[in-house]
Design goal:
Radius of gyration: 25 Å
Largest sheet: 7 strands, mixed
Shape: globular
Number of strands: 23
Distance between the termini: 75 Å
GO molecular function: methylmalonate-semialdehyde dehydrogenase (acylating, NAD) activity
Protein name: methylmalonate-semialdehyde dehydrogenase (CoA acylating)
EC number: 1.2.1.27
GO biological process, one term: L-valine catabolic process
Structural class: alpha/beta
Strand content: 15-25%
InterPro entries: Ald_DH/histidinol_DH (IPR016161), Ald_DH_C (IPR016163), Ald_DH_N (IPR016162), Aldehyde_DH_dom (IPR015590), MeMal-semiAld_DH (IPR010061)
Length: 500
């Protein structure tokens, strides 16, 4: 019998009393490895109430002391990195190396959060007027919530709750129902770090459980990463409840290739950036924009490089990437490939019908290369989320910039070139939040914010970095004056707003 995933409420792992369960499958075999509860309303209420009670005490804990809890947590995450990665690889299908890398990127955010005493410092100005001083403080919001996707079940929760809790809040996490085991590993270590009970709560479920968090009056802020449709619903619903919201959603990331670029670097990076993690990451390169006639001849070598990549299970160290998360996801990507062929694109490398020896039921898709793609084609308009690379051709850099800027998404982009002038023109003119120069996936380290823009982000303050500290806190301004003995004699009421 598959194990049942617990809830994490008030510092304890709790068996849900639900009568509705969701199968959690290994994408390489499609066998059921666990059952995830659809959390009843009463259990969600219990989790939020516990978080609210814990936060009232936690907000008064000295900021350096909060940082010490995070230091302990970081040590535990490092010590258990491989164990977390093993669980992550089993339920997502990622290669073990990729899974370890994901856990590490989450650890880096915790390391950034350990510096919160500096990040939370306010501002002070003495004598803004006669004998009057002004000070601003950063204070926690209360209870915050996070809704996270299947593709990074360790990294993205770690983007959220360590910073939120370090800022003095409590946090309720609703992870993806497709891979809930990894977040429970994070919760287990959180408990071992001896944080006060109730600061982190984990509930599971589907849309109804998300809506319960969005509409609850005790949830002050909501962080989300996922699809545009879900993000639009979450943003509209939560802002209608006057909550603070950040939604990181879809992407269509372009890599512009100039004729003067290092060809081998371009080919190697394109193949890896398109197929890594089976293309199931919001920063994957899904469109190559080749500039000029010279780069047309590079497509054959790109084809050869991608053809060498093969998917496989997490236990295969030679596998380039793993399966797609579900049979539904596989069917969707195969449908987009078929539509590209019918719309006139050239399928140079077709990953449909891929098989892996010993794993006949896995959600396998081989590397796929589609050439002569136009903006009207569905393989360009839709976010594919698979190991699929679309190739487009333009005459010059100006056309490349126009092509990227006309796309509704603005998550990430890159340019490969030997020209500093071309790189500077591109980074100045492009309307995308994160830009790489001679590197394909420009994900910033945690002391910078993750700055997707346009249709890739709904909100005002981004994930991690200084933006996250601002998102999880509010500013209190104190204006004060102290009267010396006897100065009140002869004073009269001040009928203006002047500070005198």
């Amino acid at each position: 019998m598959a194990k049942k995933v617990p809830l994490f409420i008030d510092g304890q792992f709790v068996d849900s009393e639900t009568h509705e369960w969701i199968d959690v499958t290994n994408p390489a075999t499609n066998t059921v490895i666990a059952e995830c509860p659809v959390t009843p309303d009463a259990e969600i209420e219990r989790a939020i109430a516990s978080a609210k009670a814990a936060q009232k005490h936690w907000r008064e804990i000295a900021v350096p002391e909060r940082a010490r809890y995070l230091m302990r947590y970081q040590e535990l995450l490092k010590a258990h990195q491989e164990a977390i990665a093993q669980t992550l690889a089993e339920e997502t299908g990622k290669t073990f190396t990729d899974a370890k890398g994901e856990v590490w990127r989450g650890i880096e955010v915790v390391e950034h959060a350990m510096g919160l005493p500096t990040h939370l410092m306010g501002e002070t100005l003495a004598n803004v007027a006669a004998n009057i001083d002004t000070t601003s403080w950063r204070q926690p919001l209360g209870v915050c919530a996070g809704i996270t996707p299947f593709n990074f079940p360790a990294m993205i929760p770690l983007w959220m709750f360590p910073l939120a809790i370090g800022c003095g809040n409590a946090f309720v996490l609703k992870p993806s129902e497709q891979d809930p085991l990894t977040p429970m590993c994070l919760a287990e270590l959180f408990a071992q770090a001896e944080f006060p009970a109730g600061l982190l709560q984990i509930v599971h479920g589907r849309k109804a459980q998300v809506d319960a968090l969005l509409k609850h009056p005790d949830i002050r802020a909501v962080s989300f990463v996922g699809s545009p449709a879900a993000g639009q619903h979450i943003y509209r619903t939560a802002t209608a409840q006057f909550k603070r919201v950040q939604c990181m959603v879809g992407a269509k990331n372009h890599m512009v290739v100039m004729p003067d670029a290092d060809k081998q670097q371009v080919i190697d990076h394109l193949a890896g950036a398109a197929c890594g993690a089976a293309g199931q990451r919001c920063m994957a390169i899904s469109v190559a924009v080749l500039v000029g006639k010279q780069t047309r001849s590079w497509v054959d070598e790109l084809h050869a490089a991608m053809a060498k990549l093969r998917p496989g299970p997490a236990t295969d160290p030679a596998a380039a990437y793993g399966p797609l998360i579900s049979r539904r996801a596989l069917t969707r990507v195969e449908r987009i490939i078929g539509e590209a062929a019918r719309e006139g694109a050239k399928i140079l490398l077709d990953g449909r019908g891929c098989s892996v020896a010993g794993f006949p039921e896995g959600n396998w898709l081989g590397p796929t290369l589609i050439d002569e793609v136009t903006p009207a084609m569905s393989c360009y308009r839709e976010e594919i989320f698979g190991p699929v690379l679309a190739v487009m051709h333009v005459a010059d850099l100006d056309q490349a910039i126009e092509r990227v800027n006309s796309n509704p998404y603005g998550n990430g982009t890159s340019i490969f070139t030997a020209s500093g002038a071309a790189a500077r023109k591109y980074r100045q003119a492009i309307e995308v939040g994160q830009i790489g120069v001679n590197l394909p996936i420009p994900v910033p380290l945690p002391f910078f914010a993750f700055t997707g823009s346009k249709g890739s982000f709904y909100g005002d303050l981004h994930a991690y970095g200084k933006d996250a500290v601002r998102f999880y806190t509010e500013t209190k301004t104190v204006i004060e004056r102290w009267f010396e003995t006897g100065t009140a004699a002869g004073s009269r009421p001040n009928m203006t707003i002047n500070l005198r």
